[in-house]
Specification:
The structure is a homodimer.
Chain A lengths: L1 E2 L3 H5 L4 H8 L18 E2 L17 E9 L4 H19 L33 E6 L43 E7 L2 H14 L4 E12 L28 H7 L17 E10 L1 H4 L4 H8 L36 H4 L11 E2 L2 E7 L5 E11 L2 H4 L1 H10 L6 E11 L16
Antiparallel strand pairs in A: 1-2, 3-5, 3-6, 4-5, 6-9, 7-10, 7-11, 8-10, 9-10
Helix pairs in contact in A: 3-4
Family (chains A, B): Belongs to the DyP-type peroxidase family.
Keywords (chains A, B): Heme, Iron, Lyase, Metal-binding, Oxidoreductase, Peroxidase, Signal
InterPro entries (chains A, B): Dimeric_a/b-barrel, Dyp_perox_C, Dyp_perox_N, Dyp_peroxidase, EfeB/EfeN, TAT_signal
């Protein structure tokens, strides 16, 4: 993590700040030589071995967008990825989307940045790009971009799971961008400018805002709570666990012949899971804890201990039943119940106003990075659909799968290995 | 502002923190004696001369909810306001929604708090309550609660403005609650628990999340930016300006005979204003600045100076036109163009996913507090509809008006003067 400078901090000082705004009007970032530490000034390098936004400490805010590619030209697609790469590197560094910036350009041209992030620091922004199955073969099976023979075997539409109530305008997509930041205005600014740059080549298919990260991705982060009020992601794969990352998150060089370009990348599963929170809120504490299999306060398994104590699924309870019920969520999704399947979860809470029943349109926007969805996600989701008591309170309304290429090297563009 | 304690901070320490969670499990707030300062620990008193959340320094996040009253019983309505008052006082103090809390109650009862804010500090939460026209007379004109003769003359549905494209499920409401906080999870938790408490008496009609406050309400706050990329609210009425507050925000004791109970309160205008940002982003910088009438970077009027310099509407420009165009937003809405009308604006940016055209469903959730909407809001809105160049990029999809009673005294409930 690199600490930068907040122009907002500089501008807070009153009249003297106006001159500074002019002097540094090119972008969002002031001269690092005058840097002072402050909130939101985290910066993560855009280039590296893996894309940022996976093992990066989970930021508090999300704007996720899925795009349809509206051109049939491979050259235009590649050109867009080049433009997106340059813009992403600038914005994650705290700069403007374009080289000129929001206010310094010619008056007779549209600005190359939309301006709502002027004065805001980098805010830990990460931009993570993925490719959907439709980029390789569209719905009719057409190989629009000459990529069909490079489609990884596991990059295909997820199966229909029992209980799915998918809404078309929240599902699928040829490309995705996950924008995470400490400030939603910074995340929204990034997605909006990438969409602007892509006008004529891509169109937003759906987008989702989230808050209150529901997972920790590093050992130093505490475990946050989802809208059921429970700690979520206690058993997450974390950045420090190289073994688990290698086994369950990063795609290996030999995992897939057609998808060899994806080595060092990952798969991103996105699921918009509505919670029927009004119904949940009328359940007793004991019922809620039995459904989850954990204590609501501490997050400890019902078999005892602390949050991180492994659950004892064999411990007997009353009525000849185990103390952790057979249909408790923690049991159904546990690696020991699913052939060792694990994921790096990175989801967010969402509230999108009101649903048709007068309840909150709220829930968990589930994001998980896995080495192979066939082994690390699908079996767990099927087990949940089959026997998880929590399913009564869940309704999945959106779903998508993307291949997230490895990190972007110097001089490269996002996903370059796929096109060479 | 009172500084409190962050349980999140205390819980960050690892294993030793588990004991603390048990010891202080009753609510969200730990023993103030162990307080340490930290982010999000602002607290604002719930009781006072005026409701908090009006001149309170604008927090960064919003969850706004409008409710329909589903009972015809005045007693049930009053009982709800009493319950809401107690819950609001607890939550704005950093506590749980109910006296027992999320995890300390009997296992065979639903918890009296939903738990997702466990560990989160007060985060500057304010809860501001308002009464809609329907509380006094419903759509059929029925006086459901014996309040018809106390309906203030100005508390009626706003007129239809040219360009309004109102959506029923985003418009109106018998009651409203504005929850503002630095953390969206805290604001969402508050609205969700008030809705839970009101189950059977009220139902959420619509709700709206917002981020990136678009106004400053105190002199110390910098001016934020809306999604057009421009500073917004430069000329806002601010907390320090007692004269303007008395003239334009607080209802006077003699303003309205029927509405004498509203003295010391205000009117809250809520308007969900979609921006066609994709179209806006294709305009040149000069066009954008001409439409707004201000420089995009500094916020200074096109007639020169700094952000706070009064605009010179007479200053000549080129082509025999004034330098600030005749249809520029800053001119059309200026008090000098509208008989001195002023408002205390407190709006937020919003992005609610994607619209039917594949653009972002994004814009400004406009909130303004005024002494009388007839004099301080309607004329300005009509002037905008008539001649503001900005209107081409705006589409108002939701609208509501509420009377916001004065502050809650010791031993009183919200809006008590209306019922006595």
């Amino acid at each position: 993590m690199v600490r930068g400078v907040s122009r907002r901090g500089l501008l807070g000082g009153g009249a003297a700040a106006v001159g500074l705004a002019g002097a540094y009007g090119l972008g969002r970032v002031d001269d690092p030589a005058t840097a002072t530490a402050g909130a939101g000034e985290e910066r993560y390098p855009f280039r590296g071995e893996h894309q940022a936004g996976i093992v990066t400490p989970a930021q508090d805010r999300l704007h996720f967008a899925a795009f349809d590619v509206t051109t049939d030209s491979r050259d235009e697609l590649v050109a867009l990825l080049q433009l997106w790469t340059a813009a992403a590197e600038r914005m994650t560094g705290g700069g403007a989307a374009g080289p000129v910036g929001p206010v310094e350009g010619a008056a007779d041209l549209p600005p190359d940045d939309t301006g709502e992030a002027i004065g805001l620091p980098a805010s830990g922004l990460t931009l993570t790009f993925g490719f959907g199955p439709g980029l390789f073969r569209d719905a009719a099976g057409t190989d629009r971009f000459g990529l069909a023979d490079r489609q990884p075997a596991s990059l295909k539409d997820l199966p229909h799971f029992p209980g799915d109530q998918l809404v078309g305008r929240r599902t699928g997509g040829d490309l995705c961008v996950q924008a995470c930041a400490q400030d939603p205005q910074v995340a929204v600014h990034a997605i909006r400018n990438l969409a602007r740059i892509g006008f004529g080549t891509v169109a937003i298919r759906w987008s989702q805002l989230g808050f209150g990260r529901t997972s920790s991705t590093t050992a130093a982060q505490d475990t946050p709570r989802n809208l059921f009020g429970f700690k979520d992601g206690t058993a997450n794969v974390r950045a420090e666990d190289d073994t688990a990352l290698g086994e369950h998150v990063w795609v290996g060089a030999d995992d897939d012949a057609a998808g060899s370009w994806l080595a060092g990348g990952s798969y991103l599963v996105a699921r918009r899971i509505n919670m029927t929170i009004e119904t949940w809120d009328r359940q007793t504490l004991a019922e809620q804890e039995g459904i989850v299999g954990r204590a609501k306060g501490t997050g400890a398994p019902l078999s005892g201990g602390e949050e991180t104590t492994p659950p004892d699924f064999a411990m007997p309870g009353s009525n000849d039943q185990p103390v952790i019920p057979v249909d408790a969520h923690v049991r159904v999704v546990h690696p020991s119940s699913n052939g060792g399947a694990q994921m790096l979860r990175r989801g967010y809470n969402f509230v999108d106003g009101t649903n048709e029943l007068g309840g909150l349109d709220a829930g968990l926007f589930f994001l998980a990075f896995v080495r192979d969805p066939e082994t690390d996600f699908v079996p767990v989701q099927l087990a949940m659909a089959r026997s998880d008591a929590l399913m009564e309170y869940l309704r999945t309304t959106g779903s998508a799968l993307f291949a997230v290429p490895a990190g972007v090297g110097e001089g490269e563009h996002v996903g370059q290995a796929l096109f060479t």
